[in-house]
Amino acid sequence: MVQFVITPWRTRRELLQVREKLYQNTETSPPNDSYRRQAVCLISVWMQRGNCPHLVESSAIITSAILNDVPGNSSYCVRAAYSAAFCRFVTGLLDSHQDKRRKLSMYSIAKTIGLPATYVELRHQATHEELPSLPKLRIAARKALKWIWDFYWADLSIDEKDDDCKIFVREVLEQNGQGINLNMIKDRLEAYGIDELLRALGELEETLEDPMTILQAHNFRQKISDWEESKSPKRNCITVPNTTAQDLNDIRAGMVKMEHDLDTAAASIQTPKDDKSSANSTEKGWSRWEGPWVPKPIGVL
């Protein structure tokens, strides 16, 4: 009888991508905190879906405590975050290996699975005694992540049969005699994303030998690029014509001549002098009243 395993992640590669973000190679470059935050957020979504392994959750909560250990946060709050994450990691791990028929001590279970006894002692101190010091918790958190890597993450590998994206790309490449219609596979393209598609296509191209299949792979890569460009908004390009030095000199000479003509025209204009005859003009407008002022009732013209 077939037994199905329900996981919160879609494919095994998605789980491995989270592992790469949590455990980055710090030998070549410093760790990228934004990637680790993305991994923590994704694992929190997995927790809401259910069936998330305890060590995956423990990796997220311990990493979250490390990310919150920054200047400006209260030392007591940081110690509490470390302690809560560490206690949840140890307690949940040991309870999952507990014998239902016969109660075993935490030390015996820890010895069975290879968990250091100091982790159990630190868990007991954080639960029943004063919170451990911050340097002690920092060291314990990093050692816990290392132990989780050796116990769980390091053994994970991807099998080609679990790589849905590569299977999809191979099906497209096998259609040698047919054209690639992106409208028919638009949903699959949006589900995987361009980065995942190019990754799978690049891995398959290294193993291709048939010239027709290689040509099909090249066409598919071009189709993916065109599809990605069609999704991005088009930018209006403004072309600037080439202007030579002679053209600039002609433009400058024309501007000088125009300025000279304007000055000449302005000097030739004679401004009329203000005189009293303007008051007697029949043109409409305001003018100064000449003569005595005689009051009139309102409404009488």
UniProtKB/TrEMBL annotation:
InterPro entries: Las1. One of its GO terms (biological process) is maturation of 5.8S rRNA. Keywords: Hydrolase. Pfam families: Las1. One of its GO terms (molecular function) is hydrolase activity. Residues 267-301 are annotated as: Disordered. GO terms for cellular component: Las1 complex; preribosome, large subunit precursor. This is Putative hydroxyacylglutathione hydrolase protein. It comes from Botrytis fragariae.
